[in-house]
Amino acid sequence: MAEDRVVELWGLVAAHAAAEGRRVAVADVCAVAVSAVGVSGAWVTAFGDGGPDFVLCVTGPVGERLAELQLTLGEGPCHDVLAAGAPVLASDVGDEESGRCWPVFAAESGRAGAGAVFAFPLTVGAIRAGVMGLYRGSAGPLPGGALGDCLILADAATMLLLDAADHGTGEGAVLDGAVLDGAVLDGAVLDGAVLDGAGLGGQALDLALHRAEIDQATGMLTEQLGVPAAEAFARLRAYAYASDRRLAEVAGDIVTRRLRLSPDARLDGGP
Amino acid sequence: MDAELLSDTFVDLADTMVADFDVIDFLHVLTDRSTALLGASAAGVLLADPRGQLRVAAASSEAAGVVELFQIQNDQGPCLDCFRNGRPVTAADLAVADQQWPRFAAAATAAGFYGVQALPMRLRNQVIGALNLFASEPGPFRPADLRVGQALADVATIGLLQERHLRRSETVAEQLQGALNSRVVIEQAKGKLAERYGLDMDQAFRLLREHARNTNQRLTDLARDFVSSAADFPLPDQAQPPRP
Q: E-assigned strands of chain B?
């Protein structure tokens, strides 16, 4: 059930990237979201320190307008997803509630050609990478079953953003505007480790099929390594990938204190 | 059934819903009281994730073995069946042969649980999850206890879905995702706290929860601030880590 759909959607993302002749990027997730979920367009906004910071990719001019409107206005569903830590599904931006929540954005988004706007947080607990937005020209809720697809694709976008932040500096620095300038994501920096190969390195499934140990291990590593949560999470995944083990397994070893990582990544031995 | 504890429980749950509401804290009150009231050894709330699995939102024990037992039911088990058909499911003796859910029964008995009851969390036609009760002895839960258990599951459902931050929220799914994401933040904070003070996950969770209450913060807010280093976490004197 769930696993099959995860593999299917991540496969579509990888195939889209291959067809474009490039490494997997957030833009591929946006493209697949549009076709798989049946919306008119998609965008991803990355986060800086304070909140939504800059538009990373868009599938068309309306999406671009919607993304930029929210950055300019400082209001809209993409802002609310962070406060809520949950998706915000505005199935009719022309309705009363949208108007009340986002007086300017609701009106402007309608003028820009959107009937419905759906926003998904690109987060892993306290780690905030960005927001994925979808819109449709006509009002109406997401079709049944589409929400699960959106969440799986949001997971994919989150991983790609975190990987890009990690690889962008070569030192696993946290996400910041200077590193993620878009060029990084479209170029060869992303090695698509998570998406490579039929097995997806085990990591995609581990993340979609939630395991508490992965979150606990991430928290433990922030202390062990003295790094922010995003970096701790990256180190956890890098270790699992390098030692060719399931992420949940490595996380379990850390939680049961059978494994410690060294502040210097080069000193992490094999398992 | 302890009538006083029962009335206290409903008063506490109502209080939790009125004050600075934290969904995970609320569900923990529920699982804690379920064990105390219903003669269960462990209790857990599992919620449906639209990605296609059941996820643990709260458990009366944060011990790895117990949480694992709830998680395992994504493959098979009374909780999954209860969630799928929206009706209570009973397994009175997990030790007998020919189990309906062999993998689950083996894991449960290995952890010392011989009876299990799953109660649906329903909102009109939609099942959003299930309350799971485990017993350390074989034999069914008493019918009177199960009626109270179902009432607690219903209160949990209402509490969960009335949760509204300062935002709009059109669908049940938005609220459930909010609860599940809160859980992730809390797991990260547990890990950080456990590593800092040499605690196990149960102790870390208790400390987190106590500190949230003592300082009048929502559990999820405290956890997020702590993980993102926006807030430090003084170790209270009375909660010295145990010697190994």
A: 42-49, 53-59, 89-91, 115-123, 126-135
Q: Is A71 an 8 Å CB contact of chain B?
A: no
Element (H, E) at A184: helix A183-186
Asked if this assembly's ipTM is beyond 0.90, the reply is no
Interface test with A, best of B21, B51, B202 (most A CBs within 10 A): B51
Q: Inter-chain contact A2–B166, Cβ cutoff 8 Å?
A: no
pTM of the model: 0.87
* Phi, then psi, of A217 in degrees rounded to 5: -65, -40
**Which residues of chain B are under the pLDDT cut of 70?**
19-20, 63-65, 163-170, 235-244
CA distance A247 to B70: 20
**CA proximity to A30, closest of A56, A53, A51:** A56
d(C-alpha B82, C-alpha A86), whole Å: 26
**What is the Cα B42 distance to its own chain's centre?**
10
Q: Do B229 and A228 touch (CB under 8 A)?
A: yes
Residues in A touching B50 (Cβ below 8 Å): 147-148, 151
